[in-house]
Amino acid sequence: MDLLQGTLDMLVLRTLLFGPLHGYGIAKAIRSTSNEALDIEFGSLYPALKRLEMKGLIESNWEKSELNRRARYYRLTQSGREQLHAEHSKWAEFVNAIGLVMGKDPGKAEG
Amino acid sequence: MNWPNLKYIFPSRRRAEEREMLEELEALAAMAEPGELGNLTLAAENARQTWHFTTFDGTFADLRYALRTLRRQPGFVAVAVISLALGIGANSAIFSFADALLFRPLPIAHPGEVLNVSNSTPENASEGLSYPDYRDLRASNHSFEGLVAYRAPQMGVSLSSSAPPQMRMTMMVSDNFFNVLGITPALGRAFLDEEGKIPGRDPIAILGYDFWSTQCGADPSVVGRTLRLNGVDFQIVGVAPESFTGMEQLFRPALFVPLSMWGRLSPGSENPVEDRARHDLAVKGRLATGASLQSAQAEFDALGRNLERSWPRTNLNRRVAVRTEIKARIQQTPFRLIVVTMLMVLVGLVLIIACANVASLLLARARARGREVAIRLSIGAGRLRLVRQFMIESLVVALLAGVAALGVASAAMRFLSTLQVPNDIPIVLGLALDSRLLTFNLCAALVSCVLFGLAPALQSSRTELVPALKSGGLSGGARSRVIGRNILVVGQIALAMVLLIVSAMYVDGLRWIIGSNPGFRTDHLISMGLDPGARRYTPAQAHDFYRDLSARIHALPGVRSVALAEALPYSYAQTSVAVLPEGFQFPKGQTKATVMGGAIDENYLPALRIELLRGRPFGPADRAASPRVAIVNEEFAKVYWPNQNALGKHIRLNSPDGPPVEVVGIAKTCRYLFPSEAPRPYVYLPYEQNQRSRMALIAETFGDPTALAAPLREAVHAADPDVPVFDLMPVATYETRVISNWRVFLQMVTAVGMLGLILAMVGLYGLISYSVSRRTQEIGLRMAVGASREDVLRLVLRQGLILAFTGIAIGSALAALLAPVLTSGSIGQGTRYVATFAVPLALLAVSLAACYLPARRAARLDPIRALRHE
Predict the structure, then answer these.
(1) B784 lies in which domain range?
(2) Residue B851 and residue B799: Cα distance in Å, rounded?
């Protein structure tokens, strides 16, 4: 399933709302919360993390992982939280608008 | 777009980040299933893009690579750098000259805020203001934070009461001059606000820095001492800072005094600061916050109309014009703009020729590098990356040339600094390697880098991969490169042709000037400038002084006659007269004309052998009380009374109710200011009826005039030791100095022409040599099947001559368009002959020589070895 431009950033921010995660953890979390529907390419996810970090929406530290390995954990910053909030309401509006245009499935109505 | 994080500009920072990133990715890979994370290298590469500045890594690498490549080709670098250094250096030198003549901003604080205020009348678009007008405008305007006025007279200055006075350029300035212009004295103080209110009360002076350091030995204790100025003692209160070199571009004032002292320094004239008809103050204003040129002009239009209503007698049709400094300078000295534009165009052409040379070399190199380019392209280098690589190489060459150009420029500037005016007061061009010049030089280097580098770089990056990789042979791209080089060489020859035609026309013009008669004699004459006004003589006293002095000098052995004149031909200090010739209809709005003219005594025309064509000379009968008379030159009669007899006509001087003078004689038109000037009207007035304080005394001698220099000075000393003597020199010196300036100018133009020729010939020679070396095999084959050495010689020469002919033809067409523009104004009057025959033939001969060397090399090829050549 392809993602709309900018949606990936939103998904990352949303995933980090639950708490700090490393890069692989974020990929897994998105996959499982979407019931395996969204399988994010790590090749796209990783640059997105770096981009968000550069914008100051997330920050990272080296921490011990669950398997006692060192890994880089990303967490939301305050401005990341605000950004997520803004994106969230924009997303809701967007979904609503698309829903209004699409209406009921016309194929079903006929059949 | 979000702004790049600046800390990533440092490579060390990026390297640290790189290490962390690799560690992170390794850790993640260990957690995930093998292959689950996909291509990690690509992920890392994409992540790096977010840092920006990674392009710099490439740039540093490119720079290193460029330096390495260039080091391996010292021949190419040398030819390119020398060509460009000559081109850029010539441009920088001319820029510095143009800057000194016209463009350099005033040496004051924030010169951009300062505007020029002048009168504008139907006769003269840029005239001075009178002091009362200035005072009124200063009090009533709101556009300027401060309005200053000044005039720059020459005065007799003596540092002690016993020393003989010397003529110096000085400035009389309004009290607020230093404060408004933001000039802080190096020593002592500026003028105070109240020093300028009461005429004649404040005999105080501020020395110019140059004068202080050369004449007073930079002695700080001069502050407080007195000096004598036109016979009046002044107290020195300060020294101007070194940076303030005056308000004129070429003359540096020796000292500054308050304008309120004007009256005491020029006795005989009525109180000049109350004279509304005396329009000779320069006025500048510093804009107030919120005001603009437009708003200031609008306000001064209204203020000017008020003055016109209140004082119709002196201010009728007199507007007040507000201009930027540069516009005012161009208005006042349009001639300088012509000279500057012309020189800039010529050296611009030289730079283009130089750039064409380097571009041509680069195109030749591009062929040799075809394989390198193809390999880099095939392993994934982008074309943009290649273009960047080539441009960096060009940039290195251009910057090297820019540095070398500074040497060329400073040599040329030393030569230009020898320009002088034929008077005692030196002009100071102040040419120096200053920051403005360095900036210009750098810009010229960068512009030429784009000019010569961009097209070859774009073309090289367009190499076709397969043929280039297969062999180094002539592919389609290479053939278009040869065509490109042909076009460049044709262009070079065409531009060189234009340069040569223009300079040849000037040289021819100079020969004509030197060879032709100026209309007056210069041999057996010696003259000196005198100003008894500097001793506070009234004109009547000065008249007695001159009568007495003339008698003394006439009695000297070796003197044939003695004459007086207000202005000598070719002297810098020319004078003019406002005239209203009888019956002449001026254009609407204009009431009078300002023509050159001056007072002479009855001995002047005979002494200078200025021929009187009709009428009578001035004689002893023309006294102050007798009817007023004048002699005009032929040109005056032709302009104002065409097809009429000028004798007996009347001219009113200065204004419609001025005194009428009768034309009693017509003199032959001679030259007055420049050797190459167009004929101009001139009026001679008898000294007896037009007494002046400042005059030139001319002694006609039997023998060598220089022998009389010392006796003349002694005669003045005996008459009055305090009268300053200046410009004491044979009249021939005026002519040689004027001509030597033209010679400097012409040598400069010729040097520019030769430079263009040499660079173009290097280009032609380079191209023909290159083409011979490319065609070695072909030539060998031709010889093997029977072509003689002459055939080969002809073959190569023909190729060169086709280029030369094409260039000369295009150059002729260009010159026909450009030469009339470039030689317009009063500079040079060349003949058609030179342009149409001499230059093209010379250029053809030099082109032939440039092609002959490689052609001979081709003809001497050993066919066997040539066939094996690759």
Answers:
(1) 490-522+735-870
(2) 9
Do residue B206 and residue B268 come from a single domain? yes
How confident is the model at residue A90, as a pLDDT? 85
Overall domain count for chain B: 5
Query: Whole-prediction pTM value?
Result: 0.74
Neighbours of B324 (CB within 10 A): 13
A58-64 sheet: strands from edge to edge: A21-22, A70-76, A58-64
B463, two tokens = 């190499």
Dig out the tokens for B337 from the structure. 């703009």
ipTM of the complex model? 0.80
Whether B286 and B404 share a structural domain? no
Give pLDDT, residue B268.
60
Contacts of A41 in chain B (CB under 8 A): 38
User: Which residues of B, range 5-34, sit inside 8 Å of A by Cβ?
Assistant: 5, 20, 23-25, 27-28, 30-32
pLDDT in tens, B544-593: 999 999 999 999 999 999 999 999 988 877 888 889 998 888 887 778 88
**Nearest of B699, B718, B722 to residue B709 by alpha carbon:** B699
Give the pair of three-digit tokens for residue B509. Answer: 């013009």
Whether B726 and B768 map to the same domain: the answer is no
Q: Determine whether the interchain pair B46/A42 forms a contact, defined as Cβ–Cβ distance below 8 Å.
A: no
Is the same domain home to B273 and B385? no
Judge whether A21 and A91 are in contact, CB under 8 Å: no
Helix (H, G, I), strand (E, B) or coil at B173: strand
DSSP B633-667: EHHHHHHHSTTS--TT-EEEESSTTSPEEEEEEEE
**Residue B20 and residue A72: Cβ atoms within 8 Å?**
yes
Tokens 């504008």, located at residue: B120
In a domain? residue B479: no
Q: Which of B719, B734, B749 is the last residue of a domain?
A: B734
- Which among A24, A55, A65 has the least Cβ separation from residue B32? A24
The first and second tokens of residue B764, run together, are 């032609």
Residues 6+ positions from B721 with CB-CB distance below 8 Å: B164
Q: Please tell me which residue of chain A has the smallest CA distance to B29.
A: A24
Domain membership of residue B361 (yes or no) is yes
What mean pLDDT do residues B642-663 have? 90
Mark whether B745 and B724 lie in a shared domain.
no
Q: Read off the tokens for B568.
A: 């000598």
Same domain, B60 and B79: yes
Task: List, as ranges, residues 32-61 from B with C-beta within 8 Å of A.
Answer: 32, 36-40, 42-44, 46-47, 49-51
**Cβ-defined contact of A22 to B28 (cutoff 8 Å):** yes
Asked whether residue B326 is assigned to any structural domain, the reply reads: no
pLDDT band at B2 (very low <50, low <70, confident <90, very high): very low
pLDDT of residue B668: 94
Q: Which residues contact B44 (CB under 8 A, 6 or more apart)?
A: A46, B21, B22, B25
Note which residues in 70-129 of chain B have CB less than 8 A from chain A.
none
From A104's Cα to the closest Cα of chain B, the distance in A is: 38
Q: What is the pLDDT of residues B745-786, one digit of tens each?
A: 778 888 888 888 888 888 888 888 888 887 888 888 888 888
**CA distance to partner chain A, nearest, from residue B39 (Å):** 7
Say whether both B673 and B579 belong to one domain: yes
Q: What are phi and psi of B476, to 5 degrees?
A: -55, -45
Last residue within a domain, chosen from B734, B765, B790: B734
Residue with tokens 């961009």: B454
**Residue B467: exposure state from Cβ atoms within 10 A (0-12, 13-18, ≥19):** middle
Task: For residues B299 and B307, give the distance between their C-alpha atoms in angstroms, rounded to a whole number.
Answer: 13
What chain A holds in terms of domains, given with CATH numbers, is 7-102 (1.10.10.10)
What's the longest Cα–Cα distance across chain A? 58
Instruction: Note the pLDDT of residue B832.
Output: 59
Domain assignment present for B328:
no
Whether residues B79 and B128 fall in one domain: no
Q: What pLDDT score was predicted for residue B147? A: 95
Q: A49 to chain B, minimum CA–CA distance in Å? A: 8
